[in-house]
Amino acid sequence: MRTPNLVCGLCALALGACKQPSTDQPKQPAQGGSAPASAPVASEIVIGATLPLTGAESRIGGFYKEGYELAFEQATQNGGISVGGKKVPVRLVLLDDTSAQATAASLADRLINSDKVNFLLGTYATNLVEAQSVVAEQNNIPYVNGGGAATAIYKRGYKWVFGLLAPVELLAESIMKWVDTEQQAGKLPKPASIALLWENTSHGKDFRKGVSEFADKTKNYNVAVDESFELNGKDFSALLGKVKAARADLFLADAHLPDYITMQRQYVTSGLCNKLVSYGARGSEKQAAEALGKKNVEYVLSAVWWSALLADKNPEAKKFVDAFKAKFAGRVPEWYQALGFETVRALFTAVEQAGSTDRKAVREKLAALKMPSLLPGGELTFPAEFGQQSHAPFVVQQNQPDGSAPIIAPPDSATGKGVAPNPNCK
Amino acid sequence: MKFRLPPWIRPRAAIALLVACVVLAIGPLLHEDVYVHNLLTLTFIGIAAALAWNWLGGYLGQVSFGHAAMFGIGGFVSARAELSVGAPMVLAWFIGGIVAGAFALVWGHPTLRLRGPYFSIATIGVGEATRLVCTYWDSFTGGSSGLSLPVHGDLKHTLYWYGLVLAALALAASYALRRSPVGLSLLAIKSDVEAASDVGVSSTRLQDLVLFLSGSTIGVCGGFYASYFSYIEPGDMFGFDRSISWVLMGVIGGIGTIAGPALGAIIFVLLRQYLIASYPQLYLGLYGLLLVLVILFEPLGLTGLFLRIVHRARPDLMVSGPVEEPLSATATPVAETREAK
Amino acid sequence: MERFADLLIAAVLLAGLYATMAYGLGLIYGVLRIVNLNHGGMIMAGAYAGWYVHETLGLDPYLSLLPVAAVSFFAGILVYRLLVRRLPRGAAGGVQSLLLLFGVWLIVRNAAYLLFSGNDQTLRTSYATRAVAVGPALVSVNRIAVFAVAIAILVILHLLLTRTYVGKAIRAVAQNPDSCTLVGISVERIYALTFGLGTALAAAAGLLGASLFPFNPTFGASELLKSFVVVVLGGLGSVAGTAIAALILALVEVFAIVVIPAYLTAAVGFVLLVLVLVVRPGGLFGQRVLG
To answer: Which chains touch C (3+ CB pairs under 8 A)?
Structure first.
C-alpha cells in the first residue's frame, strides 16, 4: 500500500519540478550557430562563474573573486563593454561550488540552461575546471579560466575551453632552468642529486613530470628520492627522514600552502638543510613567513604565474596593481587576483573584438587573441598547438634574508639576483 | 498460457511503478527545461544508489559507511573499459558493476561476521583504504588527474532515460528483495543470526547475495556517473562524503523500508540544489540534525512519519506488509554473539 | 642506523598522542557500550578551541589544556543528557547510537565551518620550530611536550580509575551495570560522567594534535579510525594495553615507509583496522572487553 503512494509521490514531485518557470532573462541571441554580424545585441551581457567560496579552497576562491569583481567594476565604471559600437553593461553571476566537483559541473549546467548566461568564467582547482569544462564543451559556450593548469584539461581537443594558467610542467622547468644556470656557473655540484616530494594531486604530478623530464634531458641531475604524499598530510617526519638519509643536494617539493607550512616546519626541526629548497608555486607567501618565522623560509625558491613585482617593468601589471591597491586599501595582490582579473579581461576583449555576443564569434576571437597582458612576457595568447592553454613564462622568486622575494628569472622580468647554494647550509 | 504474478507481488504496486515510469519517460517531451532534465537524471542515480545501499544497511541491518569504494571501482572500471577496450557504454557499466560487486564480496564476506557498529567502522576503513590505494594506482584510475571520457554530443540528454530505467529496476528489486521469501529470510537474519540458522536460513549465502547486489548496483551507478560527467577523479569518486550521503538518504528517508531511501535521495538532491545557492555549507549540518531527530523520534525516517500521518488520518486503513522493527532490535549484543561461537 | 633511531623516536612520540586519543573512545565504549562517532568531532573541537584561545588570548596551548578539557567535559555530559540517554541501553543501542553520534559529528563539523571557515589553521607558537637532540635524532620540542602530556594524562587516568571512588564505580558499571544499582551506585550518573570524561579526553587529544599539525573541520576522521584500531588492538580496562597498542600502530605506520611508498603509508592504519576487526575482534590481549 505504501509503495504505490510513495511512487505516485515521486512522480508528483518530478512533474512539479518540471513545471518550474524558467528565470526571466533578457533577450539572448541563439546558442552557437553563425549569426550574421547584424544580429541584435543583448541589452545586458550575463557572465556566469562558480568559485570555491566555501570549503577547502575558500581562501583562494575569495582571492579569485576579488580579481573578477575588480574587472567587472572597471567595466561598469566605463558604462559596460563596447559591442559593435554600443556600450553594453556586464553582469557577473557567481555561485559557490564548495570545492566539490559534481557541484561545479551541476552549477555550470544551471548557469547555462537555467540562468542562460552568455559566457562562462572558470573556477579554481584543476579537477573542478576539468569537470566544468566538459559541460561548457557539451553546450558550445566559451569557457575562459585562470584556475586550471593541468595539461590534461587542454589535451582533449576541446574548442570552447581557454586557459590562462600555463602548465605546471613549465613551472618546474622554470625552476630547473635557473638551477641549471647556477650549476653551469659552478655554484651547484654537477651532477646534482634531487629529493623530489610531490603532493599526490594533478598539480604535484605535473610538477614531478617537469622535474624528471628536465633531469632526463640534461643528464646533470639524478632524482635520488621520488615520493608522493597525501594532500593535507600531517606527519612528514618519516618521509623527511628518508630525504635526510639520501643527502640530496636539491630539495624540490610541490605542495599546497598548508602542507608547505607543515612540511617546512618539520624540515627545519629535523635539522635538514639542502643547498636549494623549493616548494613549487609556494614560497613567498606572507602567511608562511608568519607561521614559520622569516629565518626558516630564507632562500626558498618558488615559481609563480605572476608577481606584483612585475609592475616595475610591465605597464599592464602596473595598472592592475594600482587599481587593486586603490580598491583594497593598499593591499598588494597575489597571482590569484591577477589571474582572475586577466581572465575576465581576456573575455571582455574577445567580445569587443567580435563586436557581438554570438558565442561562435567570440570563441573565434578568443582562439586568435593576442592581448597585451599583465602576465610575464607581456602578452596573452591561447595557442592552438597547446590546446588553447597559455604558455606565458613563469617568474622565479627567492626569499631573501631581508624579507623580500625578488624575481630572479627570467632575465627580462628580474628585479634581483638569486643565491645558490643556501649560505645557511654548510 | 496464463501469466501469473508470484503471490507476493501486489498488482497495485506494479501498476503504480509502471505508471510512474511512463509519466517520467514522456515528461521531457513536454518541456524544454534542460536544467530540470539533468537534475532529474542525477536524482535517478541517487535513488538507485540509495536503494542499493539500503539492501545492505536496511534489509540486512549492516550500515555501511564505505559504499563509495564500490561506486568508485564501478566508475573507474567502466571508464577504463570504454577507454582502453572500447566497450559500449551499457556493457561497460555492467562490467563495472560486476567488478564492484566482486570487490564487495572480497572485503565484505569476512567482515559481515561482525555485527552492528563493528561492521560500520570496518567499512569506513575499507572506504578510505580503497580511496588511497586507487588514488595511488595511476594506471587504473589516472591517479589524482582522473580519467576523461570523450564527450558524445547528446549523451547527457539521453542518459535521463537510462537513469529512469536504472531507478525503476532498483525500486523493483527493492520491492522484490523485501516482499519475496528471500526478504523474510533477510529479516530473520537481521533480527537474530543464530535463530535464523536454526530454522535453516543460510545466512552466509544470503548475506553474500545482498552484498553482491548492493555492491554491483552501486558500481553501475558509478559507471553511469562517469558517463554523465565525462570526467571522474578518485578523490571525488571514493570520497567519504559520498559514502555519508547514502547513509543520510537511507536513514532519513526510512532505513529498511522499500522506497524510503528513494524519498531520501529526492529530498537530498533537491535540498542541496536549493541550499547551495544561499547556504552552501549548511546542508551537511542540516542533515546531521535530521539524522539526530530521526534516530531519537522516528526510526523509520520520513517514511515512518508519512505512515503515522496516514494512520492518524485514516485509522481504518490497514497498512499491511512486513512490519518494520526499529533499529534497536537489529544489533545482537556482541558479547553474546561471541560467547555463542 | 641513524635512520632507525629517527624512526623509532618518531614512532614512540606519536604513540603517546594515539594513546590519548584512543582512551576516550575506549572508555565510553567500555562503560556505555556505545561507539562514539562524535569522537572525531570532539577531537576537532578541541583543536579549534586550543587554536582559538591562542589566537585571541595568546594563551599557550599547553596551558589552555585544562580549561578546554573542563569545558568539553561538561559539553559531553550535556550531549549525554540531551541525546544519548534517550537511546535504549546496552548493546541493543548499537547502530542507533552510532548514527546518532554521527549526526552530532556532522553538526559539530558544520558549526566549525560556519565559525571558522574551511581553511586550514595552524597553531603558531614561538617555539614551534625549535628542536632538541634526543640521542642521535633531532626532535621538535612540540612533540616531546605532547608526549609528556600524554604520559601525564594516562597516569592520572590510571590513578583515577584505580584509586578513587568514582573511578572504581566506573569500572564496576563497565563490568555489570545491574548489580551496581543494587550496591547503590547511580548508574545513570556514572554514564553521564564517563561520557563527559571520554569527551574531555578527545578534546585534549585534539588540542595536542593541533600543536603538531594543521587542521580544518574535517580533522578527526582519520584520528577516529586510528583510535578505533588502538582500542580494538589493545582492548580495554588497562592503560598498559592501550599504550602498547598505540605503540604498535605508531611503529607500523612509521616504519611502513621503509617498505611501501610514502603515499600509501596513510592507508596502513585503515588496513590494520579492517584486519584486526576481522581476524581478532577480541583484541591482541584477548580480553573480553570489546567482545
So the answer is: A, B
Q: Is residue A120 part of a domain?
A: yes
**pLDDT, position A40:** 54
Tell me the domain boundaries of chain B.
Answer: 11-283, 298-341
Q: How confident is the model at residue B27 (pLDDT cuts 50, 70, 90)?
A: confident
Domain count, chain A: 2
Q: Which residue of B has its CA nearest to A95?
A: B277
Q: Residue A424 domain-assigned?
A: no
- pLDDT band, residue B1 (cuts 50/70/90): low
Domain count, chain C: 1
Q: Which of A234, A257, A293 sits opposite C129 (nearest CB)?
A: A293
Give the chain B residue whose CA is nearest to the CA of C101: B292
Chain B residue with minimum CA distance to A155: B148
Q: Domain B11-283 carries which CATH code?
A: 1.10.3470
Same structural domain for residues A287 and A404? yes
pTM assigned to the model = 0.88
- Helix/strand/coil (H, E, C) string of chain A? CHHHHHHHHHHHHHHHHHCCCCCCCCCCCCCCCCCCCCCCCCCCEEEEEEECCCCCCHHHHHHHHHHHHHHHHHHHHCCCEEECCEEECEEEEEEECCCCHHHHHHHHHHHHHCCCCCEEECCCCHHHHHHHHHHHHHCCCCEEECCCCCHHHHCCCCCCEEECCCCHHHHHHHHHHHHHHHHHCCCCCCCEEEEEEEECCHHHHHHHHHHHHHHHHHCCEEEEEEEEECCCCCCCHHHHHHHHHHCCCEEEEECCHHHHHHHHHHHHHCCCCCCEEEECCECCCHHHHHHHCHHHHCCEEEEECCCHHHHHCCHHHHHHHHHHHHHCCCCCCCHHHHHHHHHHHHHHHHHHHHCCCCHHHHHHHHHCCCEECCCCCCEECCCHHHCCECCCCCEEEECCCCCCCCEEECCCCCCCCCCCCCCCCC
List CB contacts (< 8 A) between A19 and chain B.
Answer: 31
Mutant choice from C109, C124, C134, C255 vs A, greatest count of A C-beta within 10 A: C124
Residues A37-66: tens digit of each pLDDT = 445 556 899 999 999 988 778 889 999 999
Contact A270 C124 (CB under 8 A): no
For chain C, list residues with pLDDT below 50: 91-92, 284-291
- Whether A137 maps to a domain, the answer reads yes
Q: Considering only residues 226 to 255 of chain A, which have any Cβ-Cβ distance to chain C shorter than 8 Å?
A: 227-230, 232-235, 237-239, 241-242, 244-245
Model confidence pLDDT, tens digit, residues C236-246? 657 778 888 99
User: Minimal Cα–Cα distance from C120 to chain B, Å?
Assistant: 16
Structural domain that includes position A230: 169-304+395-409
Q: Based on the fold, state whether residues A195 and A277 are members of the same structural domain.
A: yes
CATH code of A177's domain: 3.40.50.2300
Q: Do the chains contact at A228 and C120, CB–CB below 8 Å?
A: no
Residues A266 and A404 in one domain: yes
A232 touches B: beta carbon within 8 Å: no
Instruction: Tell me which of A12 and B222 has the higher pLDDT.
Output: B222
A131 contacts B229? CB cut-off 8 A: yes
Domain enclosing residue C109, as ranges = 19-219
